[in-house]
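User: Hey, quick favor. My workstation is busy. Could you predict this chain's structure for me?
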Amino acid sequence: MEHGVTIVSGLAEGIDTAAHTAAIEAGGRTIAVIGTPLDRYYPRKNAALQDKIAAEHLLVSQFAPGVETARFHFPMRNRTMALISDASVIIEAGESSGTKSQGWEALRMGRPLFLVRSVVENPSLSWPKKMVDYGAGVLRRTEDLLGSLPFSQATGELAF
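Assistant: No problem, here it is.
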């Protein structure tokens, strides 16, 4: 990808699948952090994508093979994504979404967090205003995000 950004996402249906697929199609890098052991697929329909990421990119899980998947694993996965990312962007999340755990963890660590404007302006959601009050930015342009990331002066790519 032209800016050297690595996409970190959770391999769930919807936005996560789109983010990983777009990164791969653009010739970029992607990391999938899953809420199941590496030997399980969730959602099952992403099995081929998970295998491709495991083979050609990076697949991460904090759960040992054979561990029974539990509901609380997915918010844990979201916190892990915040820990390994230089910045987080919330594209969509309902009132009870586990994605909020990633946002709060990013804010707790002092890492940049952006919420897309449609999330912030959604009158049915109460949490976006709280995150903005705690320092989350409202993402209006890609340049807002890129300007917050630690780029290497030598290579022009993200510094890791």
